[in-house]
Amino acid sequence: MSDAHDAKLVEEGAALARRPGRTTTPVPAVPENWAGVAHADPLSRGHRGYVGTPLARLDGPVKVRGRAPFAAEYGYDDLAYAALAYSTIPKGRMTGLDTAAAEASPGVVLVLTHRNAPRLNPQPGYDMSLRDPGIGFERLPVMQDDRVHWNGQPIALVLAETQEQADHAASLIHATYAAEPAVTSFAAALAAGTRPLEIFGRRIRVELGDAEQALAASAVSVDETYRTPPHHHNTIEPHAVTVAWHGDELRVHDSTQGVLHTAWTLGQILGIDPARIRVTSPFVGGGFGVKVLWQHHVLAAVASRTAGRPVRLALSREGVFRMTGGRPPAEQRVAVGADEDGRIRAIVHTGAYATTRHSPWPEPLSMASQNHYASDAFVLDTSMAYADLVQNCSMRTPGSTIGFFALESAVDELAGKLGMDPIELRLRNETATNPIGGKPFSSRHAAEAWRAGAERFGWSRRSPVPGSVRDGEWLAGMGCAMVSHHYQRRPGGAARIRLTADGRARAEVAAHEMGMGTATVQSQILADRLGLDIDRVSVGYGDSAMPGRFLAVGSSQSAGIGGALLAATRNLMDELLKLVRDGSPLAGLTLAEVGAVNGGLAALDDPSRHESYESVLARAGRAELVVEGSGEPPAEMANVSMFSFGAIFCEVRVSSVTGETRVSRILGSIDCGRVLNPRTAASQFRGGIVMGLGAALTEETVFDDRNGRIVNASLGDYHVPAHLDVPPIDLIWTDIPDPYAPAGARGIGELSSTGVAPAVANAIHNATGRRIRDLPITPEKLL
Amino acid sequence: MTEDGGPVRINGSPVALPDDPRVSLLDLLREQAGLHGTKKGCDQGACGACTVLVDGQRVLSCLALAVQYAGREVVTIEGLSEGDTPHPLQRAFVEHEGFQCGYCTPGQICSALGMMAEVERGVPSYVTADLGAATAGLDGDELRERMSGNLCRCGAYNGIADAVAETFAGRTR
Ligand code: FES
Ligand code: FES
Description:
The structure holds 2 protein chains of 2 kinds. Chain A is 25% helix and 24% strand. By secondary structure, chain A is of the alpha+beta class. Among the domains of chain A are: 46-50 and 491-633, Aldehyde Oxidoreductase, domain 4, CATH 3.30.365; 76-181 and 236-286 and 291-323, Aldehyde oxidase/xanthine dehydrogenase, a/b hammerhead (Aldehyde Oxidoreductase, domain 3, Alpha-Beta Complex), CATH 3.90.1170; 439-488 and 636-783, Aldehyde Oxidoreductase, domain 4, CATH 3.30.365. A 7-stranded mixed beta sheet of chain A has the order 4-6-2-16-13-14-15, with helices on both faces. In chain A, strands 8, 11, 12, 17, 18 and 19 form a 6-stranded mixed beta sheet that branches. Chain A has a 5-stranded mixed beta sheet with strand order 20-21-29-30-33, with helices on both faces. In chain A, β31 (703-704) and β32 form a beta hairpin. Chain B is of the alpha+beta class. Chain B has 2 domains: 8-79, Ubiquitin-like (UB roll), CATH 3.10.20.30; 88-168, DNA polymerase, domain 1 (Orthogonal Bundle), CATH 1.10.150.120. Classes of the chains: A alpha+beta, B alpha+beta. The interface between A and B is large, with 70 and 70 residues. The complex binds FE2/S2 (inorganic) cluster (FES) (2 copies).
């Protein structure tokens, strides 16, 4: 068995090595002011090289051997272990906090409470304007007073010689409370009234024409309410930090989606220069929006300074539920009106979600309806209801996952009323320009994705009559839904490249790897931009001491790194030309006249005029050349509307006896610009689809409405999809480069999850005739 | 605590049992033996990230007290590769994209090895049609059912199943 297997691997490896990966025509530098110019980047112009090839993950061997170090795995002599105690009421004051038993417990080093914690600055939170690199959602003081803001708030930290001792001592902490009236259910929050959601200080409300009137005048319409529960990300690696002070320098081994942001934010709270804080995060055991700064960062740093010892604070799974939030509960109205022939005339998408009064965080669900279907009239708006619950935060994909559930369920309902195929209905409402604002799309091939997906999935075999396909106890059906996500490149990206005399290049970016394959994909791009073999480049990341302000959020990181790397490679080529000596084949050439190829630079019009990097550096007597580059402001979005598109198709079987739904087949047909690495991209798409299956069928954070306490704070009770819940997921993509995006790629992390819940709900309707507008679609809802 | 059976053997080397009987096998590995390859995802027996092999059987090390393992032979992810040569299943995980973040991965790999031994012993699963068969297979839903104790929030399930199926192809009837 293993011989045959090894032989196959050897063969595959050799094939990979032989594949003409390295670029063979000179790749010119991307000119300045590229952002907003179509096809300014040669990698978006049908270039062939490593980009687009299915390179296996470079960090794969480390991960499969268990040698990838995560945040809770850094050792220090004298390390002390922390455990937290949590409040058990949702709101009020602590009238007593008995720590005596904990302090007397064996091995305890320190018990930290609001009584002895040093004074700290408030948490700055996330800066929506992106001016400051704040990260984190809460703006509350951390353990500074006796106030309780939610059920599960950390009220004490215990530090001990071992984790067992810390856990035990934390269980001995006893608080008494003077409870105050609290809003502990979404229903109560809604009943207390809602406020409009503002982003950047502006309401996100969109109004075009008179949508209510157009709806009333439509020949056919649907008008329904959709409900979705709270969700938790539940990365398999719980949040953890290992921290150590060296004098007044703080070292943080973290699991974060923002190394630089974490350093900056901790600096603000602790009142020290962020440059004195070094945050590294080489591996992140899943992020999905939640690996940001939460109170445990602050508490670990403070406990470490107070005790004078390095500290490990790894949240328990229960702790993850108690003190980090996820997607908030929401209630949405979607109404769509159309002509008899399916032409949409009106879209109304309004809704409310729960957030906290102290740190309102946006879940812009109505934006899901903003950029897709041509319609004469729109009303889109989101409002907030305040509750005294754990802070909500961004979860793959904010606004869209639940917004699309409502929109794409409603569109399916409309197709039913029209007696029209749901794909045909969508194709009839395709648009080349954004219906809001009228900008042309940079590259929109949604119709191709729909058609190719329908063909591959066998959509024509779907029975249009709900409840008509039966196989014993099982009812079978097919459903589909649109996916979409906006392209985003955030300001502040920067990169450093070090080219050494042996002809190797290493780039460094303060970016993140949480499973996306960051280092692999960026190495492919760097190799192509510099005309180097893949094994002569490397990409360093996950260190706040590296350049650039990156957040691994909103599927924006690849574009951000891309924009920074193309600037840095341009600067590198420019600096190399300055080193060129008389007699070099490159002598006299300008930046615009050269490209990178074969481990060096060459004239674009005569590639035989070539000099290797080794030679250029050697002749100039240089051991290395180090340059930096910064991404241009993201002007590419100024004149075009940049979105990825696609469609999810799924087939379900629903038991008529138990109401259980099994997803038997699923296909994603994707239009995301250029696919930089088909392996890692497929992985991302599948991952998003799997998370969508959880939202569709099983996931719900259950709060006790009486006291706001989460009752299913474990992976045994909060049901994420398991192996048997996930069928083989088929994928196809258009692979059409976006002319405006670095390397032609629009970002993929969040795209596929957006349409899964509605595709499943629509398939369940097709199978059973039952329309469920309330996630998750658990068996009792189908009985 | 070691009067009968002596220390626990981990990847062939003896490791002293802890003085504190509350220490889980998982924490013994991670905090005392310095073997961080075995992961802690929940500490509650619900995710499978901590799966190790004890005398060839898969065990959730977070639910096991270390002191119970005197004299037993524990194999962790670090013990699977021979020197620099990875186990075929480890290679297959790389080839088939059996992971993204890599945090559940050691548990998936150890679990798959233990699972295969169960299949070969004829241990039936919930989806096995013939409970009396001498050996089970990995066809149909068997593989996915038998691996369902190992959660992967990154959703790399397809790649994991492909890697396991390819590695063990030919080992089942
Ligand atoms: S850590 Fe043991 S099952 Fe989750
Ligand atoms: S690879 Fe991230 S949890 Fe499985």
